[in-house]
Design a protein that fits this description.
The structure is a homotetramer of 279-residue chains. Chain A has 279 residues and is an alpha/beta fold. Chain A folds into two domains: 65 residues, 3-Layer(aba) Sandwich (Rossmann fold), CATH 3.40.50; 186 residues, Dihydrodipicolinate Reductase, domain 2. In chain A, strand 2, helix 2 and strand 3 form a beta-alpha-beta unit. Chain A is globular. Strand 11 of chain A pairs antiparallel with strand 11 of chain B.
């Protein structure tokens, strides 16, 4: 299948394969001179990511890395509010991201670990919202959900504090399980206000009875929750290609988020705040 | 007790007695030249209300009628939004007012009927929000709750449509019982927007679980729901007295709301829209 | 185009043409023995609707009439709550349906009037939720928005009260224009509780600043608001066909809603409550 | 004034004086054998707190320390939900506490610093909700608001992560200023659900217009926000006295919260997680 991409009518390649195939497929597409859209991450090892991005750069082809959550209408409205100065000078960011249920242990084992696999979305989001480089990370992991996850050498719950160059602090919680559904929330606090994105619910129906008021469940998982963001990221990729504009999310963005994940891993293991400059 | 009001140190009389004592007490207070604050209604018969108000006018004493709901912070914010033009030209009003549980049958029997006893608050509110004279009323009553209420010659549910001189239409529902607590809501719709007052809840606590989200109950009844409005109406009465300003709610307001109630009664009995000019 | 429907591989015909083509296309499809899905209404004249439905019945083909709003996830959750007894015995229904902006005058002129064109969705919904036959309608129309609508012989605002056989009362407001977007709300009140469907917003983002809290706009119009209901009604049609089950919404449903609309027109013109038995 | 407390008709002493008077007044009341209610903190120095509490213990008089926020109806509903097992096994706690505006610099100077003065409420709340002893604290302070606060040697923003013995993690943000009003929110996440307490607003009024929906401001400050909690804590004190039951919040609770504050101060200064066992 990779061979077909050399066809002259192919302008761009969309890589949505398992992570361990990404780097090779990116290289093949770059070698064929094609624009590339790739699901995160480029790879789980820093060396291979750097090598792949360097090769893409040499090939001079555009590469968009799919941090789809940036394109979520509610989350991008938070970003816009910050950019438009509606909350003044940004001071802090809160992100809560909880999956409804943990993936199979087999997935956990080849995931690169919770920070690289799951938290990385929030690391990218925190960088994106902060609009500055991260300086220091303090991270704590825990095992609350399934002992098999711990036995596989991973954590299932993460608590992270990131300090950015511009004085912004991000506080992030991740959990591999939430009994009430997929929980994806953002908050940005600044000198003039605060802006939040709450979880959309399945319906707007509310029942009032003798016990109180009762609303519907949250959306089940990323397929429902981020439908619109997937459409928007594809549109953004195609638009950037057509207009010859820079990609909205780049391989470098993937690399930067990866540095935060690696710092978080070190912090968790060494129980101390870790400077990004150590990575 | 009425005798004491002639004391020169008494500036004003607050009448919070049962309805059938109101007219006499108002007359006594007026005769003594005292300012008067009286719970609604002045009386259940039109003739006595007119006679009492005429006597008050002759005595030249200020009279405030306690339609306390006008002073509720949320409801008065609705009125302010209308007055400030924030919804443009007013087109329609919706009021839902449901008690948690019906009063005793003994109370029902001497209440003057649901329209005069309960709906009258909403008739006053509709007039207040519409800012115009009512022209026509169409009302339907029903018995959904307790057959004893029907046996006592009253209804326990009411559905009312009022047309005002300025083209505004009000739709009102009243119920003597709501399993989920005291339900008091307003909505005003205009050419530029809509403004609503929702029910406050006992706490802001929300539980999310596998069934959905769950908030607290509404406040139980008028004592909790309208605490602030009672304080504000007393402050408004005293302020008006001190500053020599007109009373914010007058006996005439009581009379006008009573006309709507009487039109609603006729409409319900005769199953036809009734003009206020018929009353 | 109609001719092609006789092709043996055609199982069903979807009629989404202008209203004045519906009856003929239904007849052609019925004559060809095809299952029929048709946008509401069958026709604007009672005689032609009856004649068409009779012909469909004789042909023995299934016909689904597209009152899509019944399939809206939030509205069907309201219906489910009623059916499951979660609000006890139903007492009343409130429906507010306001379009963002009026259609062109040319559309108004051939629409059959606001009751038949717009309110009919709510008449169907009221019937659907009430689960009983309507007995009486009282309706008031008004012109608040564009004098050209009045000049075209139509109203742009409607206020309707419907009494059902089982004692349920429905209060409905319609407006051809709402400055804040497409407003589509339902409320059902019963002996044990109340269930409401509120308007979904474009995003869940909320800004808090010195003026208060600020949420996003409502969805713009039916294309956004009812996307899911259109998918669901098509699925329901296909499922019913495959399983040989009765259509979830029938031509008879269209006829019943039409009777309410005609009663509402008479009520508005004659300024009196109109019995369905008069139609 | 202190002298009067020996009067035999005095059963209890309420100490609501400036912090630097607390210890002496507690000692005087204890010496007089009176029950004591004291605003937090007992003192700003650990030695004096220990000494005072020891003296109270020797005197055998009850002492209630006024962490009033525990008595807030919404916050105590969060605690109840945890205790009743409604969210299963507790995993994490989030607290955001932001004042509307910083106190005067003179107050800052004698406050003991932000951790001891402001965050201490949240340290107590985190302990209260976690239901376990804290083990480790990681805290970062920042100066975002007023350089004069930094010049006075204090911070105006704090970000804190606390690990508890039972595996629970608390993430806390404090700010001395929020443009949108007093922001006091809690969230507790567990294996079966999540429970949150949101900010009450001044009214329930919501305006919908072309820009979106607009709600009222949050309550201004602790006097409005915690009115009910002050009433409840006084009732709880009197009830405990009358019934001879243990005080619901004790001097020991004050001491434990103080240890967290001291650990936070060390953590912030030394830029490392600090064990409670180091204090």
């Amino acid at each position: 299948m990779v061979l077909n991409i050399v066809h002259p009518e192919v302008d761009a390649v969309l890589i949505c394969s398992p992570t361990n195939a990404h780097a090779d497929q990116i290289c093949a597409a770059a070698a064929a001179g094609k624009a590339i859209f790739c699901e995160k991450p480029v790879d789980l090892t820093l060396a291979k990511v750097r090598q792949t991005l360097s090769l893409v750069e040499d090939a001079g082809v555009p590469l968009m890395l799919a941090f789809n959550q940036r394109m979520d209408p509610s989350f991008s409205a938070v970003k816009s509010a910050i950019e438009q100065g509606r909350i003044g000078t940004l001071r802090s960011i809160h992100i809560i991201s909880r999956d409804p249920a943990p993936p199979p242990i087999s997935y956990i084992k080849s995931s690169g670990g919770m920070f690289l696999d799951m938290s990385i979305h929030d690391f990218d989001m925190a960088r994106h919202l902060a609009g500055a480089a991260p300086i220091e990370v303090y991270a704590r992991g825990a095992n609350h959900i399934d002992p098999a996850i711990g036995a596989a050498g991973d954590i299932d719950s993460a608590y992270i504090m990131i300090s950015f160059e511009n004085g912004v602090t991000a506080m992030i919680e991740n959990s591999r399980q939430a009994a009430y559904g997929y929980d994806q929330r953002l908050e940005a606090f600044g000198s003039e206000g605060m802006v939040r994105a709450e979880n959309p619910l399945k319906t707007t129906t509310v029942l009032s009875n003798a016990e109180g008021i009762h609303g519907d469940r949250q959306l089940d998982f990323f397929i429902d929750r981020y439908t619109e963001s997937y459409l928007r990221e594809m549109r953004a990729f195609v638009d950037a290609l057509k207009l010859g504009q820079p990609m909205p999310i780049t391989g470098q963005d993937g690399l930067e988020a990866m540095y935060i994940a690696l710092a978080a891993m070190s912090s968790h293991q060494e129980r101390r705040p870790v400077l990004l400059s150590e990575c």
